[in-house]
UniProtKB/TrEMBL annotation:
Chain segments carrying region Disordered: 70-103
Transmembrane segment boundaries: none
Annotated protein name in UniProt: Transcriptional regulator with XRE-family HTH domain
Single GO molecular function: DNA binding
CDD domains xref list: HTH_XRE
Biased segments, Basic and acidic residues type: 85-103
InterPro entries: Cro/C1-type_HTH, Lambda_DNA-bd_dom_sf
Length: 103
């Protein structure tokens, strides 16, 4: 009962350690990386510890040279609004307004 961490958890902890070491060796601390990713320093810690983040952050990490084996895995992302949703909503409101003014 000394070590209750699952094998995957141990792998992720070691990977997080290696990623932090790589970042430190290349001049990135939590704040510098947070500025680069446009997130808070606590979010950077979550990304490193969980080993998952949105693809846009993975692309940024790859662009600064983080080795592929240290990159986090892509996390499921919530879909954003569809393109043109505001225009469609405004057009629908105009049609409803025209319909009510005719009555």
């Amino acid at each position: 009962m000394i070590n209750q961490t699952a094998p995957h958890g141990q792998d992720q902890q070691f990977r997080a350690f290696l990623l932090r070491r790589w970042l430190r060796e290349h001049g990135y601390d939590g704040r510098a990386l947070a500025r680069r990713l446009h997130v808070s320093p606590s979010r950077v810690s979550q990304i490193i510890l969980r080993g998952a983040c949105p693809r846009r952050h993975i692309e940024t990490l790859a662009a600064i040279g983080v080795p592929a084996d240290l990159l986090p895995l892509p996390s499921p992302e919530r879909p954003g609004p569809q393109k043109g949703w505001l225009e469609r909503r405004l057009e629908r409101a105009r049609r409803e307004d025209d319909h009510t003014s005719e009555a």
